[in-house]
Amino acid sequence: MEETVAQGSPMGMLLPFIMMIGVVYLLIIRPQQKQKKEHQKMLDALKIGDKVVTSSGMIGKISKIKNDKNIIVLKVDDNTNTKIEFQKSSVIAILDSKEEEND
């Protein structure tokens, strides 16, 4: 009694793996790359006087930008003139001037 096992072609076996790699690229890698580009574009557009939020939740106005060291100085309190240095990459958002007027 001979039993024969049906063997698929090597291409037919690789096709699901290739499709999985394509799905991972489209759903995970590509959106991350796009988000990273947008974040870098936002960081490049920072200027003195912008009101920003850092990843730690600190809100302040940019009073100085040290591009050579990739550092920004935020003024967080007008009354005491408190200034804190942050890595430029820690900025997650620029607040609109419309939001600033509501405060």
Question: In words, what does this structure look like?
Answer:
With 103 residues, this protein is α+β, with helices and mostly antiparallel strands. It has 2 domains: 37 residues; 56 residues, SH3 type barrels. A 5-stranded antiparallel beta sheet has the order 4-3-2-1-5, with helices on one face. β1 and β2 form a beta hairpin. The protein is rod-shaped and about 85 Å long.
CATH class of the largest domain: Mainly Beta
Summarize the main sheet.
5 strands, antiparallel
**Gyration radius from CA atoms, angstroms:** 25 Å
Structural class: alpha+beta
> Element order, helices and strands?
HEEEEEH
User: What would the average pLDDT be, to the nearest integer?
Assistant: 87
Instruction: Estimate the strand proportion.
Output: 25-35%
Number of domains: 2
**What is the share of helical residues?**
25-40%
